Amino acid sequence: MPSASGAPLVVVTGAAGRIGRSAAPLLPAGWRLRLTDLRAGQLPGSGLAVEALDVTDEAACAAAFEGADAVIHLAGVPDPAATWEQLLPANVIGTHAVAAAAVAAGVGRLVVCSSLQAVSAPVAEHQVRSEDPPRPANLYGATKGWAELVGSWVAATSGTSVVALRIGYFNEQRPPWPGTTPRELAAWLSVRDAAELLRASVESDLREVDGGPVGHGAGFVVVNGTSAGRYRKADVSTTQRVLGYRPLDDAWAGEPLP
């Protein structure tokens, strides 16, 4: 995402969450980061400052996004077992507030974090593709399908382009983990690949290698986000082609072949 100053200002919501606090220190040094979360403080380990922001407050979001070139929206309740009452504020109201505020602030690129839970209902043998429509198996996944639709709405009605990331099974530790399942291995997203995914989502011009437009509509694309495992729950070829995503980690490295 080009910036007039040469150093893009990127705002991250939910920066103190698992993905944010792990990946933020690995984001490009050339970015100017404005990290936000519900409470102000510092990220453990890196010491990066975090500003307070309630994503359900659209006016506060617009103020936080002022002058930003891109917004990475990580804030939300990430629990597939969460109730509607738990999900409604951040995942539904907050997603709309962030999207509307990004448009109002003239943000060039909005990155919304969806989840493979948005397409969790198909049979286990099905490899999820970027073009698959939402088909969630739980309410959490339904709110992530909502995030994708909000992104489509933003791209269709404003000058803000949108990348919707269907995040896989994020885990800060390398596998194997206690009780590791093949499903988790096949959907794993590592810390450094998460940072690479966010980088690519902000910096891509959303055009294919051959120069043709891509996505589900002008300025909008849904892509899958897992590491470079040899057995993957989700196809990341579109992510690689469209965003220039370069994953490095393989959950199956060192594991016996099935």
Structure commentary:
With 258 residues, this protein is of the alpha/beta class. Helix content is 31%, strand content 17%. Strand 1, helix 1 and strand 2 form a beta-alpha-beta unit. Helix 2 packs across helix 3 and helix 3 packs parallel to helix 4. The chain starts with 8 loop residues before the first strand and ends in a 15-residue tail after the last helix.
Produce a short descriptive summary.
This protein has a single domain (9-243), classed as Rossmann fold (3-Layer(aba) Sandwich). It is 31% helix and 17% strand. It has helices at 18-23, 58-64, 84-104, 139-157, 182-187, 191-203, 237-243, and strands spanning 9-13, 32-37, 41-42, 49-52, 70-73, 109-115, 161-167, 169-170, 188-189, 220-225.
Supply the key terms:
258 residues; alpha/beta; Rossmann fold; eight-stranded mixed sheet; 7 helices; NAD(P)_dehydrat-like
Radius of gyration using CA atoms only: 17 Å
State the name of the first-level CATH class.
Answer: Alpha Beta
Structural class, by secondary structure, is alpha/beta
Q: Helicity, in percent?
A: 25-40%
DSSP helical segment count: 7
Our estimate of the beta-strand percent is: 15-25%
